[in-house]
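It is worth pausing here to work through a concrete case rather than discussing structure prediction in the abstract. The textbook approach is simple: state the sequence, then state the predicted structure, then interpret. We follow exactly that order.
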Amino acid sequence: MDNNLVNKIKEFASQNYDEVLAIRRHLHQNPELSFQEFNTSKYIQDVLTKLEIEFETGFVKTGIVALIKGKNPESKVIALRADMDALPILEENNISYKSQNNGVMHACGHDVHSASLLGVASILNKLKSEFEGTIKFIFQPGEEKLPGGASLMIKEGVLENPSPRTILGQHVFPDLPLGKVGFRPGMYMASTDELYLTVKGKGGHAALPHKCVDTVLIACEIISSLQQIVSRHAKPDVPSVLSFGKINSTGGATNIIPDEVKIEGTFRTMNEEWREKAHKKMVKIAEGIAESMGGKCEFEVRKGYPFLKNDEKVTQIAQEAAIAYLGKENVIDLDLRMTAEDFSYYTQSIPGCFYRLGTGESTGLHTSTFNVDEKSLEIGMGMMSWLALNLLDKQ
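Step two, the predicted structure:
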């Protein structure tokens, strides 16, 4: 593509920075939980209206789809996606734009994603006479909560009328310094499943355990034994993680064995066949241990997002374009991640690329003090605009 276009996009990104910064800070200050993004959606609609960009609303209640049509708009279509929801976390940052919604925070950067995508829309709207095809902008609710807004938007036709050939997603990454971006072709992120166990027994006085069916002991045995699923049954070349993050009892105390103990955890992997086998093994082991100790275990597996696999060709095009925009030294190869993303639903439907935007040093994602170097907004909107035009050009 014409290198003069790179300079033009960088100039537009610089001009847009203050406005996109204000958008990001507004979104950060007014976060909303998954599938409750009504004010966020209205705000984004107002920005699109101001930019004179056509859009549709009502996807999964708060989702938005905007279109920018270049020359010969029916010839080819690509999609760009940003998520809008926040997390149930109390923000501890001391900043002027701190969350005003107590206990809710943009701790995963979705405010940056949405603000950046609005910046991309502004840039590409100015350039629509210089590209062929149509660019579809997806502002998606509910990435942080099963079944995932992506899966629901797909069911409601977000990948139809018009149908994009490819899709791009950008995500902030505090592990990368400002000015750098990361890509990984092929398998990148894990599937994710939520595990809910209820151990039932017979409570009573802790000094008289022979009269009880000890639910706490059964729960401990189950957790310990389930770790063998990964350490003794998963093949070495199939990454897997099994972790438990919550255990509590109903009515227990220092001297009381409770009737019931609840356990919650997560299972992640990158192989669908093994995923199904692991589910069955976990249930069988847990139920067997509980029964052998005189109790009962109710085990629910809530199947979540599939693994995320970046299309080789799309990722190569995007990575080469990123090098042209930022320089080879600023484009790095990413490692596999056992975290999960509902962008995976898009990549299961059409070829796509999910990449990382360096945001400078910060505490990790999903923490109460997460933040970004806001200059990443200028890089993010500019580079995504350039990647989109390169993908259109090579369709």
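Step three, interpretation. The longest strand covers residues 240-250. The chain has a mean pLDDT of 97.
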